[in-house]
Amino acid sequence: MTGPDAAEPLFTPELLDRCISCGFCLPACPTYALTQEEASSPRGRITLMRAVQTGQLPLADPDVSEQSSFCLGCRACEVVCPAGVQYGALLEQWRDAGWRGTGWWGSRRPLRLRALLFVAGRRRVIAALGRLRRAARTPDRPGSDQLLLGCFERLLYPRVSRSAVAVLPGVGATPSAGCCGALHAHNGALELGRAMARRLGAALPGTIVTTSGGCAAHLAEVLGRDRVVDASERLAGELDALPAGRLTTGDRPLRVALQDSCHLRNGLGVSGQPRAVLARIADYVEVAGADRCCGAAGTYSLLRPADSRRILAGKLDALEAANVDVVAVVNPGCLRQLRDGLRARRSPIRVMHLVELVAAAHDAAYDPGYGR
């Protein structure tokens, strides 16, 4: 994709033409909720894309650049769209054209993002960092299905990977498999991200089990939905094997809420499964806005921290008003975002990944205080 005057357009015309400008997407969009400005809605951004496609606006126009960055990429608009607009695919094409700079390294990208993509894409770097932090190691384990060990999850939250291996019988682990390329695809290196997914698919034959909604959606798009299953789907399929009502605090059941993964919910339609698992092992509490983005959004919280915090604030208010003990997540970015936000408020609410809570329900010796 080289420009509006080239033989190949920036945006796939069939995707761009599908939008009928009805406005159903506006109430679902977190950035439109912040600004109430048309340009900050999916419909407004598609209008900008069309202007670029036809040459009315240059790709480097300040409003075009700002809106491609301001968008969270949460894909909530796709769920409510009556025309079936694949907005996530259009956003990836937009950033691929506007953020690529020179080569995949992308001189137009902020330095923090370039460093993040470099580390995520280098299996040897990941392996070296893993050796520096022994707690992040998960041993090779054979299995007909394979757990995807996230690039940064294994370093920042190694307990998540270990919990997943413990609660998913028959699922193997191959730490050397590498990165799936989701961050690259979402941040202006679309073809590289797809190539990395194909490489990972070849390294992990059979079904790939994930604990990261963003990775799951990316892999499903490239490899096919039949190759990818989220850990919550696998656990929900075996509810009878989970210890009912096991999680307690003091003399009462543990009150647990859920923060959806945007890509898992909006991209793959997985939302009921983690709720079913939590309702089995604890006192599940549905909190208003659980289906809305928390502001982590992959690299968004690093690139636009102020906007990310604005989006998070209302969610933290709702969690505290609901008087829950723990908020469960199904994505490592959400885990970091919510944990940092609640800690900044000195809130007693803990944040844990779903598989950690399942491991705690199985094992009375598991430390229930983890996640503070």
Entry keywords:
372 residues, alpha/beta, Fumarate Reductase Iron-sulfur Protein, Chain B, domain 2, Rossmann fold, 3 domains, 4-stranded parallel beta sheet, 20 helices, 10 strands, 48% helix, 8% strand
How would you describe this protein?
- The protein has 372 residues and is an alpha/beta fold.
- The protein folds into three domains: 13-99, Fumarate Reductase Iron-sulfur Protein, Chain B, domain 2 (Orthogonal Bundle), CATH 1.10.1060.10; 111-236, no CATH class; 239-362, Rossmann fold (3-Layer(aba) Sandwich), CATH 3.40.50.
- The chain has helices spanning 13-17, 30-35, 42-53, 62-70, 76-80, 87-99, 111-120, 123-132, 153-156, 158-167, 182-186, 190-203, 213-223, 231-236, 262-268, 272-281, 300-303, 305-321, 332-344, 354-362, and strands at 145-147, 171-173, 208-210, 228-230, 248-249, 252-253, 255-259, 283-284, 326-329, 350-353.
- The strands form three sheets. Strands 2-1-3-4 form a four-stranded parallel beta sheet, sandwiched between helices. Strands 8-7-9-10 form a four-stranded parallel beta sheet, with helices on both faces.
- A hairpin with a 2-residue loop joins strand 5 (248-249) and strand 6.
- Helix 3 (42-53) packs across helix 4 (62-70) and helix 18 (305-321) packs across helix 19 (332-344).
- The longest helix is centred in the C-terminal third of the chain and has 17 residues, at 305-321.
- The N and C termini lie far apart (46 Å).
- The model is unreliable at 1-6, 102-108 and 131-136 (pLDDT under 50).
Secondary-structure blueprint:
Elements: H1 13-17, H2 30-35, H3 42-53, H4 62-70, H5 76-80, H6 87-99, H7 111-120, H8 123-132, E1 145-147, H9 153-156, H10 158-167, E2 171-173, H11 182-186, H12 190-203, E3 208-210, H13 213-223, E4 228-230, H14 231-236, E5 248-249, E6 252-253, E7 255-259, H15 262-268, H16 272-281, E8 283-284, H17 300-303, H18 305-321, E9 326-329, H19 332-344, E10 350-353, H20 354-362
Parallel strand pairs: 1-2, 1-3, 3-4, 7-8, 7-9, 9-10
Antiparallel strand pairs: 5-6
